[in-house]
């Protein structure tokens, strides 16, 4: 009899697989829901106990008020006396004008220097590109302790203009290059001068110097 009932149950389950699966799934979901509800109740109780503990700690702790400091700033007025410094811009006491004339303006320099350290001398050559701002028949340059050699002059606007001779203004240390005619305004020219001098003459311009190394040797 029992075997017959068991066999009938098996046959029913096999014939109603979908119904059986849904029933089992529904039962499992009900069990899970009940478990979650119990867990939530336990968590809520735990949270409630924690909150009560925190409230008790806060109530038993007294926080003193932070001290307040008031700073009062008083305005202070400081009066400064102004001092005026006057810098003298007068010409030297001898009244001599050492500046070059403004009738020629240099545009470019090419410079070659060849020192001879053994003899304490040097030679050099310079080519200066010049623009004339107002008519003149000379070019004036600074020159100090130099021996002037060959001089060439070439005007790009008038090829007839050429070097004539030169002279010195020893008081103002000026070299005056004289031409055979007048340069016109805005003329451009090239002036080439060869020169020589001594490296040990004075500590001015192009000169030699020495020093002692760590071993005491003069270099």
UniProtKB/TrEMBL annotation:
One of its GO terms (biological process) is peptide catabolic process. The chain crosses the membrane at residues 21-39. Keywords: Membrane, Transmembrane, Transmembrane helix. GO terms for cellular component: cytoplasm; extracellular space; membrane. InterPro entries: Aminopeptidase_N-like_N, Aminopeptidase_N-like_N_sf, Peptidase_M1_aminopeptidases. The keyword ATP-binding does not apply. PANTHER family: PROTEASE M1 ZINC METALLOPROTEASE, PUROMYCIN-SENSITIVE AMINOPEPTIDASE-RELATED. GO terms for molecular function: metalloaminopeptidase activity; peptide binding; zinc ion binding. Residues 105-217 form the Aminopeptidase N-like N-terminal domain. This is Aminopeptidase N-like N-terminal domain-containing protein. Pfam families: Peptidase_M1_N.
């Amino acid at each position: 009899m029992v075997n017959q009932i068991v066999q009938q149950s098996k046959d029913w389950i096999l014939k109603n697989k979908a119904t059986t699966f849904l029933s089992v799934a529904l039962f499992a979901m009900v069990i899970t829901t009940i478990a979650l509800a119990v867990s939530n109740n336990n968590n809520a109780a735990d949270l409630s106990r924690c909150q009560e503990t925190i409230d008790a700690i806060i109530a038993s702790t007294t926080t003193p008020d932070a001290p307040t400091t008031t700073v009062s700033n008083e305005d202070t007025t400081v009066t400064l006396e102004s001092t005026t410094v006057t810098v003298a811009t007068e010409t030297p006491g001898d009244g001599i004008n050492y500046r070059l004339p403004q009738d020629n303006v240099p545009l470019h320099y090419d410079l070659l220097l060849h020192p001879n350290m053994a003899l304490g001398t040097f030679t050099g050559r310079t080519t200066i590109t010049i623009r004339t701002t107002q008519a003149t028949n000379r070019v004036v340059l600074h020159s100090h302790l130099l021996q002037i050699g060959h001089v060439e002059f070439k005007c790009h606007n008038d090829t007839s203009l050429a070097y004539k001779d030169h002279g010195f203004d020893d008081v103002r240390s000026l070299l005056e290059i004289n031409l055979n005619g007048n340069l016109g305004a805005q003329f451009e020219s090239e002036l080439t001068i060869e020169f020589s001098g001594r490296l040990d003459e004075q500590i001015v311009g192009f000169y030699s110097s020495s020093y002692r190394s760590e071993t005491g040797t003069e270099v």
